[in-house]
Amino acid sequence: MILEYKGINVFYTDQGQGTAIILLHGFLENHKMWHAFLPELTKKNRVICIDLLGHGKTDCLGYIHSMEEMAEMVHAVLKHLRLRKYYMLGHSMGGYIALAYAEKYTKTLKGVCLLNSTYKADDAERKQLRVRANKMIQTNFNNMVRMSFANLFSEKSKVLYKTAFDAALKEALKTPLQGYIACQEGMRLRPNRQKLFSSLTCKKLLIAGKNDPVVDAENLVEETKNTQIKTVVLSEGHMSHIENYKMCLEEIMHFIE
C-alpha cells in the first residue's frame, strides 16, 4: 500500500489481525527482509512492514534521512492506520529509528525490540567510515554495496545461506544512491539513546549476534545486566533473521505474547 507523505510515496504492507507489530528493516534492506517471519507472526497479530526513506518502494526525502525524520514518517503511516498501541521491532538501522520513535511517542509502545542494533551513537571511527563510504559510493556503487553487504555475513554464513544471501544482496543493489548517502549521514548524526532505552517502561528486548561485526554483543550484555532490558545473544552475526532464523523468530514470538 502507498501513503503520500510530504509529497513522496511511502510503501507499507498490512497483514493479519490482532495485536499490532511494526517491523522496521535495516540499511540496504526493505520490507521483504521480514517475509519468512510473516506466516507465523500474522497468525494472531496484525503486522505492518514499512519501507523506510530511500529504500524499497519508498522515495527519498532530501539529502539527510535523520532517524527522527524516519520516525516521523513511520508515525504518519501508523496514524493513517489509526493504530494506538503496538510493538516495534527494528533491525540494525531500524532499531535506531525505533528508539527515535520511542523518544517522541513513548505512550504508543507496548514493547521495543532492537534486533542486531544498539542504543549507542557511532564512535569517531565509525563516523569516519560513513563519510568515506559516502565519497566512494558515488563512483563505484555496485562494488561498494556488494562489499559492505558481504561484510555483514561470515564466510560460513555466505555458503550456508547462499540463497537468502543472494536474494538480500539483490534487494540491497536496488537502493538508490541518494537513499544510501542520506541514510549513512542520518546514522552518522544520531545521538546516544542509552538512557532513553533504559528509562522506557514498556517491554524491552535486545537480540544480538555473538559474531556481529557491527554491534558488540559482549558489551551490550555487560551494560544491560541488572536492568529491565532482556538481552539474548544468538550464535552468528548481524543477520539473525537469516543466520539464526528459528531462534530469532522464537524470541520475537515470546516477546509479543
The CATH architecture name reads 3-Layer(aba) Sandwich
- CATH topology label: Rossmann fold
Strand order of the largest sheet: 1-2-4-3-5-6-7-8
Query: What would you give as the CATH superfamily?
Result: Alpha/Beta hydrolase fold, catalytic domain
* Count of alpha/pi helices: 12
Q: Give the CA-based shape.
A: globular
Number of DSSP-assigned strands = 8
Strand content: 15-25%
Helix content: 40-55%
Largest sheet: 8 strands, mixed
Q: Point out poorly predicted stretches.
A: none
Order of helices and strands: EEEHEHEHEHHHHHHEHEHH
CATH class: Alpha Beta
- End-to-end span in angstroms? 27 Å
Q: Evaluate the radius of gyration.
A: 17 Å
Structural class: alpha/beta
Count of discrete domains: 1
